[in-house]
Amino acid sequence: MATREVECLTQAGTQCGVLSRAEVLRFLSPKQLERRLASGHLKRVFPRVYRVAGAPDGWRQSVVALSLWAGPKAALSHRTAAALYGFTHFTEGPLEVTLTAQRRVPAGVKVHRVRLLAPKDVSDADGLRATSVERTLVDLAVKTDRYTMRASIDEALREKWTTLDALHAALARARKYRRLGASELGELIREFDGGDGPGESELEEVMFALIESAGLPKPTRQKSGQSGDKRVRVDLLFEDYGVIIEGDGYATHSGVDSFEADRERNNLLTAGGFLVLHWTWTALHQQPEELINVLVATLNSRVRRAGR
Question: Strand 243-248 to strand 109-113: parallel, antiparallel, or no bridges (unpaired)?
Answer without folding.
Answer: unpaired
